[in-house]
TrEMBL record:
Membrane-spanning residues: none
All copies of domain Aldehyde oxidase/xanthine dehydrogenase a/b hammerhead, residue ranges: 21-135
InterPro entries in the record: Ald_Oxase/Xan_DH_a/b, Ald_Oxase/Xan_DH_a/b_sf, Ald_Oxase/xanthine_DH-like, AldOxase/xan_DH_MoCoBD1, AldOxase/xan_DH_MoCoBD2, AldOxase/xan_DH_Mopterin-bd_sf
Stored SMART domains: Ald_Xan_dh_C (SM01008)
Name by which UniProt lists this protein: Xanthine dehydrogenase family protein molybdopterin-binding subunit
Protein species of origin: Chryseobacterium kimseyorum
Highest taxon listed in the record's lineage: Bacteria
Lineage: Bacteria, Pseudomonadati, Bacteroidota, Flavobacteriia, Flavobacteriales
Length: 745
């Protein structure tokens, strides 16, 4: 039976049955003999010092094994760089239990270890802690005078600062036919993956550890543990085959990993530490950000002047920076630009990348501003984008490797029925509901990093592919199997993709929409190298019919190696394997962008989002009734998993626009709604008709597979599209997210 291609097919997730039947094991579910449980104790004050922690009474409780504090913490690494990780921003990395200083509310200050989780949690409430409190500052808006330019520090090494000014913004803006001047804000958001953070550490003796960790990077956690605790990398194994959501919260090792490893090494026992839901609000967040945009355009709608400033929150000890203001000139080719980004250090924990970090924030302000221009000029919002369309990234003067955004606009508008829109605000009604149509553009980077993969063909002709990459629910396991099946011309059933183990070939953290573009080519290269090895073995067979053939002259199909121009001249792969003395055929290969050519073009994934809202005219209640997202993301390996990714992003976009916000009481420096009852996210009743459309896009530059990531793009354009639809429905322009009904009354 001839093998048909797997890439491009909507194959269901290969691990799906394990997840829906409960057979998939997560980090906090692995059983071990003689397992101890740790519970983290958090500071109840926001800034100051611990004067004393009395552990004597807690240690008398039967079943309590130990209480770790800064006073009895085992020795760990001294230098800051030893605590760094693949996603650490510049600054002084937070070191749990380092000393008695309190830097933020909820800081981990002790670990109670007991025979059961429940006992450890109970004992934690009995600790007697005395604090010396200090004044603190947690309010971004009240401390704007303390903002600073992060590019003057080390932050610019990791995330590019805004491009330098071009032209003469002030002069061009003042002489523009249309001018906008708008101020935007959004509140703090927390990641809230379903699976809470847990680490199960198996002590294997002689400083050898096997760790089941909730992480978006097994090698990242391995590197962190080895460096912090002075262990050999080969003696630390981190495993994470199933991850119940991450959204960026697992890009950095979280403190439960530190605590579990510390306790395991000190006690020479197996230890598990799990954070509860409230503690999940103490490990990072999307920072609240204030923005100002000033765009100038001529009477035909051509944007000729762009000003965009963002001011975001960071901690006292790290310079967390997002790429917020760089996007406008990448999309719209204005000649006169002034882009600024500042950060305000506050007494909070460091913010952390959250799905489409910076892009989700910046594109909201940019696309609402474009909508303002469209209404001022009475130009259709889609037409305005086409007037300002460019095949180059003006901010870098580089041509895009591919850009099918124009077709996203056109195909998305047709699918949505945009032509049925009456452009006049408050002109469309359905009963007592005001109906609004809104649209926006989405954009995200299409990057790739270094990745490695191993391919092993066993004597029975089956193949195992190995990579340390995680699968955080995106479908990585499935699409890597599809890529391997096609490269080897084997049915997908003959491929096993083994992953999420730090002892496997290197893969970076899974985030930024670069995983498929990074690990996919590594899998592709490893499979091609495996084919070459098989071909060389075939040539060595006695009386081989391929002895004079070259590799480029043969093809692999249906278990045979044959000549491309004469399929009758062939050798069975089973015969090749039989000649290899019962040994497997192995190969390991890398894939990385060519540093000499990769930067010569701009690389991005694009989308056009169309939204219909209904707003109750009397109550102000907002419903997103339907939305269409048209995406251009190169080759789509699996339309089913890709669609799932974009749909998830669209739902999060609804959440960001209308629901999500963590409220920080600045009197206490504490988040007041650290739970899923009061931290509002959409439920089934909030989600209606969502549709994803993939626009065909051929890109031969980004990587040999021609793929771009889709993890981020689904959420980038939704908040501004919803905001613009609300304006069309009500005539009220809301600049602050989330938008609650009281703003419309």
């Amino acid at each position: 039976m001839e093998n048909t291609p797997s890439v491009g097919k909507p194959i269901s997730r290969l691990e799906g049955h394990l997840k829906v039947t409960g057979s998939a094991k997560y980090a906090g579910e692995y059983q071990a003999d003689d397992l101890l449980y740790g519970y983290v104790v958090n500071s109840t004050v926001t800034k100051g010092k611990i004067k004393s922690i009395d552990t004597s009474e807690v240690k008398k409780i039967a079943g309590v094994i130990e209480v770790f504090t800064h006073e009895n913490k085992p020795s760990t690494a001294w230098f800051d760089f030893q605590y760094a990780d693949m996603d650490a921003p510049p600054g002084t990395v937070f070191k749990p239990l380092k000393d008695n200083d309190i830097k933020y509310n909820g800081q981990p200050i002790a670990l109670v270890v007991a025979d059961t989780f429940e006992l450890a949690r109970y004992a934690a409430t009995k600790l007697d802690i005395d604090y010396e409190q200090e004044d603190f500052e947690t309010d971004l808006k009240a401390n704007l005078e303390k903002s600073r330019d992060p590019k003057k520090g080390l932050a610019s090494m990791l995330k590019p600062p805004p491009p330098k000014p071009t032209g003469n913004f002030d002069k061009e803006y003042e002489s523009s036919f249309i001018k906008t001047d708008s101020h935007f804000s959004h509140g703090t958001e927390h990641h809230n993956p379903m699976e809470m953070y847990a680490s199960t550490v198996i002590y294997e003796g002689k400083d050898r550890l096997k760790i089941y960790d909730k992480t978006q990077g097994t090698i990242n956690s391995q590197m962190y543990v080895a460096n912090v605790f002075g262990l050999k990398m080969k003696n630390v194994q981190v495993i994470a085959p199933f991850v119940g959501g991450g959204f960026g919260s697992g890009l950095r090792p979280q403190h439960q990993l530190f605590m579990a490893v510390m306790a395991s090494l000190a006690l020479k026992r197996n230890v598990r530490v799990t954070l509860d839901r409230a503690q999940m609000y103490m490990i990072g967040h999307r920072p609240p950000t204030l923005q100002q945009t000033k765009f100038g355009a001529d009477k035909d709608g051509k944007v000729n002047a762009i000003y965009h400033k963002a001011t975001g929150e960071t901690s006292r000890f790290e310079d967390y920076v997002e790429i917020v203001v760089n996007w406008a000139n990448m999309l719209y080719p204005a000649e006169n630009t002034l882009l600024e980004h500042e950060i305000v250090p506050l007494d909070v924990y460091s913010p952390l990348d959250m799905r489409a970090p910076g892009g989700s924030t910046g594109m909201h302000a940019i696309e609402v501003t474009m909508d303002e221009i469209a209404y001022k000029l009475n130009i259709d919002p889609v037409e305005l984008r086409l007037i300002n369309y460019s095949e180059t990234d003006k901010s870098s003067d580089k041509e895009f490797s591919s850009k099918e955004l124009r077709n996203c606009y056109l195909q998305g508008a047709e699918k949505f029925g945009w032509n049925q829109r009456n452009p006049e605000p408050r002109s469309m009604k359905r009963g007592n509901k005001l109906v609004g149509y809104g649209m926006a553009t989405g954009m995200w980077d299409a990057n790739r990093l270094l990745g490695r993969a191993e391919a092993i063909m066993t004597p029975d002709g089956k193949v195992e592919i190995k990579s340390a990459v995680t699968d955080i629910g995106t479908g990585t396991l499935t699409i890597m199997t599809q890529i391997a099946a096609d490269e080897l011309c084997l049915p997908i059933e003959d491929i096993t993709f083994s992953y999420a183990d730090s002892k496997m070939p290197f893969a970076p953290i899974q985030g930024g929409s670069f995983t498929t573009a990074t690990v996919g080519p590594a899998v592709q290269n490893a499979c091609q190298a495996l084919n070459e090895k098989l071909f060389k073995l075939a040539k060595k067979l006695k009386d081989s019919v391929l002895s004079d053939a070259k590799f480029k002259e043969v093809q692999f199909r249906d278990g045979w190696i044959s000549l491309k121009n004469n399929a009758e001249i062939k050798i069975s792969i089973k015969d090749v394997l039989a000649s290899n003395e019962g040994k497997s055929v192995k190969t390991t290969n890398s894939a990385m962008p060519n540093p000499l050519t990769y930067g010569k073009k701009a690389r991005a994934v694009h989308s056009a989002v169309f939204v219909e809202v209904e707003v109750d005219e009397e109550l102000g209640i907002i419903e997103v009734k339907r939305a269409v997202t048209a995406v251009a993301a190169g080759k789509i390996i699996n339309p089913k998993t890709a669609e799932s990714q974009v749909l998830g992003g669209m739902i999060w976009g609804i959440s960001k626009a209308l629901h999500e916000e963590t409220i920080l009481d600045h009197q206490f420096g504490k988040y007041m709604n650290a739970n899923l009852g009061e931290y509002h996210i959409p439920v089934h009743a909030d989600i209606h008709d969502l549709e994803v459309l993939f626009v065909e896009e051929n890109d031969q530059f980004v990587n040999d597979l021609g793929v771009k990531g889709v993890g981020e793009i689904g959420g980038v354009g939704m908040p501004p599209a919803i905001t613009n639809a609300i304006f069309h429905a009500t005539g009220k322009r809301i600049y602050d997210l989330p938008i609650h009904f009281d703003r419309l009354l």
